Fold each of these.
Amino acid sequence: MPLVDWFLRHSVTMWLLLQSFVLMTFCFHSATTFPKGCYHAEEDGYKTFRCSSAQLTEVPKDIPNDTNKLYLDFNQIAFLPIDAFRNLPVLLELDLSHNAIVRIESGAFRGLSEHLHSLDLSSNKLVSVNKDVFSNLKAKVNLSSNPWLCDCRLQELIRTVDLVAGSSGSIVCDSSAKEEHVGKPFL
């Protein structure tokens, strides 16, 4: 009789533990679920996170921190907040091309200075960017095909950024204090 008594007392406890385990499994599963249209894969030996054409309006929060290449191209991201990529210590390539980015906060790329080799911001809606946004970055940056305001701030920015070879000719003045510069390459 003591064995049956012990079993009945502990079976309720076991049932509650099992139920808690099942609920935790569902919670952890949903926490690692990627946004629709995104997937994590290994490509050519690099851990890649692709969210190309996923209709994103912001940088996803749950990007795996072992990601080497991040593709957020062809989305509707308009703003890059401070620390947008802070949990990505081994990121080598970041593609943000073909979005609607109009504003990048200083510190958006904080934490990427050591490893990032390539940053693509082409074909966005950048008019002006503070040069501090790219401070300490060693990456090659593509800023082409944006509606740039050609002024002293853009000149300071271009001096501080290591541009992708051949992309400087596509940094075209969409507006300028001098009308004769409009529609012409900045450099």
Amino acid sequence: PQDSEKAKTFVHAFLKRSMPKMKDEAIQDMLTRKAVVLEHYAKKKVKQKRKKTKGFTAKQRRELRLFEIEPEQQRYAIFLPLHELWKQYIRDLCHGLKPDAQPHMIQGKLLKADLHGALVTVTKSKCPSYVGITGIILQEFKHVFKIITKDDKLKVVPKLNNVFSLELDGFISYIYGSKFLLRASERSAKKFKLKGTIDL
């Protein structure tokens, strides 16, 4: 039929135009098999990378003095309400510090608790000048505590080679700083050994 001849002519012309390097014999051979497979390459999808929200670098934080406490705010009396809030937070965390409470259970919770506002004392240290420092913890970093003392002095006390005692409602807990070299946010997921040792 006339339509089939037109179709054959169109296909031949299409193949010749699409594959100019192919010889007429090869095109004719393709047509005799009655099937033409046209290759199609799917475009690869480019994955868009999620943009991470960039925070301040450590250098920028130092330059902006984000974590520095101004001298006029370095007063013990200002942070007494913070200490009262911390005591209530620990009582709620431990379901009330009752006389029959198990010490190891309270100790375990204190090790993972937030210590900002806690009243601590340095009981042992390799450096004698740190022994006896008592105050409220204002800031906790990976390696140091910043403590405000009763005479309105801000002390930076390293955790390494120091033992801190913490007293609340008659319960005394000891923190071995050498085993405590973590940020406050990292401690909640860490398992601690209740018996600590320190080489002093």
Amino acid sequence: MDLCHVPATREKGWYLALMAPNVKGPNYAWLDPSRLYCHPQGLQDCVADLLQPFQGDAIDMVAGIDAMGFILGAAAAATLQKGFLAIRKAGHLCVQTVAQPYSDYSGREKVMEVRTDAISPGLRILLVDQWVETGGTMRAAIELVERLGGIVAGVAAICMESSEGGKWIQERYKCSHCVPPRLQPRFDQHQ
């Protein structure tokens, strides 16, 4: 798809066609949304679709998850006129942090951390990531926010797969994603 082309009718998720399939093998995610971020209208519509369910909700801050969640999270924070907090993979912050181990979508054990001075008790945080596949990364971010006394105001991602972890998150938190119901089975099966 042309990075300048904007369809005459823009249904929710039209920009999903901008994503590119994995050509490098099983150590990589099955789709790469980064081309979507290069398309000005695609990025704007994606962020608008992610934020639509939270219109009128109390959100004090947006937190994006390392690394691709930084893009959508920062765009969402700018749209909402809220601050942005980066939840990082361990070892990147030079300040006091709290850490949480987790397994990512590939099954690799990792550790995520967040600075201890950014979340005060009762702060309502919208968590944003590019993708929720198994839910391990997002659950670690949720744990960090709640351990510091923050409230998860919602979870937003381009896609939330219907995995056990994805369902766990959707059952407990207000969630938003961009995949229309008719396409969800294809995304769940990585087609």
